[in-house]
Amino acid sequence: MRSLERVEARDKVTGAARYAIEYPVEGAVHAVAVAATIARGEIQSVGADEVLALPGVLAVLSCENAPKLNSVDDAELEVFQSRTVSYRGQLIAAVVAETLETAREAAARLRIGYRAEEHDVRFRDDRSDFLADVEQGDPESALAEAAVSIDATYTTPAEHNNPMEPHATLAVWDENGLTVHDSNQGSSSVRDTLTKIFDLDPAQVHVISPHVGGGFGSKGTPRPTAVLAAMAARDVERPVKLAFTRQQMFSMTGYRTPTIQRVRLGADADGRLSVIVHEVIEQNSTVREFTENTVGPTRIMYRAPHRRMAHRLVQLDVPATSWMRGPGETPGMWGLESAMDELAVTLGIDPIELRIRNEPETSPEEGLPWSSRNLVACLREGAERFGWADRRARREGRTLIGTGVASATYPVNRERNKATARAEPDGRFTIRIAATDIGTGARTVLTLIAAEALKADPDRVTVEIGNSDLPKASLAGGSTGTASWGTAVHNACEALLAELDVPVPPEGVEVTVDTKEELESQEKYARHAFGAHFVEVHVDIDTGEVRVPRMLGVFAAGRIINPATARSQFIGGMTMGLGMALMEESTMDREFGDYLNHDLAQYHVPVCADVRDLEAIWLDEKDPHLNPMGSKGIGEIGTVGAAAAVANAVHHATGVRVRDLPITPSRLLSSL
């Protein structure tokens, strides 16, 4: 196992691992995207002639000359098919040139004529354009009758994913069709989309993505880079490289919606919940509808006979929202876990004890557990390791010190996949599946799964991923990767063993499996991972700065197949949660209609100095109804609940309840 991890790490640090636009292709030219400078209106003219006169410029693509594309579900992929401008920063043109420097200069000189209209980008709670409610019992009556109640509003700002590798594509057309090296979270999905947009046969489209430098959800669906690069390459009849700039990624690639969450809890004097109401307002663009299921965790967290979950969407002239790590659960558990802490303080009950008294109910489907007792186990194990029994707020000089806790949960899902397992006459095995490694160690874990099923040494197993020509795979997202791909790989290996004779014939033996039927037979089961975050904070009285000297995450996420990469996933998620709590915030400029802090100099994320004693542990959990490996997803649960744990610790230290993220010095100082 260690040798596998070392090989992958060595490839990355030495540059042997190629990313999207790093592939050497003879005759490649460069495209640079041009963004709209108005927030709403119409394109009236594109001054292409002046730019085309520059030496080295090959083409200008826009709504005035773009080829007709077939429609798809995502309007943002219908590149240059309309003159309508729906938000500032929208992709409206591109320049193709011999060098990147020439393309950048030409793109900066391209003059666009607009007919501007008045725009609306102010996110607020006084309007909504779409309703979605789920209700159980009589929440309003239960609130009126509750001995103790909490009614508070919590907000989160817009947040941007910012993977290290930008969204990028290298597109090549030849006699075999279209080949794209693309930074994405699912090559099969990108292949299917390009096939439809360009009206091609699936066999003519090849999407290659063996290494992806992060995604965090922003690359979970095909993005305009792939479409634009392919369009440009066909137009100039040369391979085209295209990468969005860091600034363009703040408008063209999706982000997490801001939320306004009203949470109401009703309980008896002992803290047993009778009602939970969680109502959320989210932001939507006019380009396409996207709803983050922010109230999703409230459906299963904590025992209450009466509850209501509601979504409201506000449609604005803003970039389209999309997936970001832990979509739904991450912002939703911020509101719910903050409210639970407020209820515990009001009742004078230890916040861990309050959560244990209200552990989630059993599933209504055949009485199967939600694995809720694992939440209780995580809370108790974490309390012991963290030293919760000695919890007390204190002051040391000009520093206030406190601790906080919050629960975490994430659903366990699987998607349909295919995989091929092949035995070679030399005793080696080759596994093929179009899975994607976005830096999570997918190659290593799939190798271990295959080796275990084959009863072979991992060094005898080669796993091929990241290519749409391989058996079709689901995307790397929703914490489904290992469970979904691993099921297909495990089943293919078992099927191969059943077919295998010794010695293996010279032509080898190969089998392909499809997990469709197995997934359909498992739909009746409810599956969730649970966890708990424990945080200590130090708050400077004079500056309002919040430091987190130690943070512990405890998780029950099924069988952990590779402890080394699992720990990295957990602490990576916790680090993002820390950033959500203290620094991540995209600020909208209402006058011009775009985000002001659109680079990493102004959009702050945690760095090494912010992450001190950060540790993650997990419980041994066995569940026969999960998958052949007994694993649950771990990519997102580390982020869920982390921000609430930080905020609850800040309240414990200072007595100040911050309900609007992030907890910046100015917000905190105004209340100290």
Structure notes:
The chain is of the alpha+beta class and 672 residues long. It has 16 helices and 26 strands. The strands form six sheets. It has a seven-stranded mixed β-sheet, sandwiched between helices. Helix 8 packs parallel to helix 15, helix 11 packs parallel to helix 12 and helix 14 packs across helix 15. The longest helix has 20 residues, at 563-582. It starts with a helix and ends with a helix. The model is unreliable at 363-370 (pLDDT under 50).
Classify the secondary structure makeup into a structural class. Answer: alpha+beta
Separate helix tally: 16
Strand order of the largest sheet: 3-5-1-12-9-10-11
Poorly predicted residue ranges: 363-370
Report helical residue fraction. Answer: 25-40%
Mean pLDDT value: 94
For the terminal residues, how far apart are their CA atoms? 51 Å
Percent of sequence in beta strands: 25-35%
Total strand count, please?
A: 26
| Form type | globular
Give me a quick take on this structure.
The chain is α+β, with helices and mostly antiparallel strands and 672 residues long. Helix content is 27%, strand content 26%. The radius of gyration is 26 Å and the shape is globular.
Question: Secondary-structure blueprint of this entry?
Answer:
Blueprint: H1 2-14, E1 29-35, E2 41-46, H2 48-52, E3 57-62, E4 84-85, E5 91-97, H3 100-109, E6 112-116, E7 130-136, H4 139-145, E8 148-156, E9 168-174, E10 177-182, H5 187-197, E11 205-208, H6 224-236, E12 240-243, H7 249-252, E13 259-267, E14 273-285, E15 306-316, H8 329-347, H9 351-357, H10 372-386, E16 394-396, E17 399-411, E18 418-423, E19 429-432, H11 442-454, E20 461-464, H12 481-499, E21 509-514, H13 516-521, E22 528-540, E23 546-556, H14 563-582, E24 588-589, E25 594-595, E26 613-618, H15 642-654, H16 665-669
Parallel strand pairs: 1-12, 10-11, 14-15, 19-20, 23-26
Antiparallel strand pairs: 1-5, 2-4, 2-6, 3-5, 7-15, 8-13, 9-10, 9-12, 13-14, 16-17, 17-22, 18-19, 18-21, 22-23, 24-25
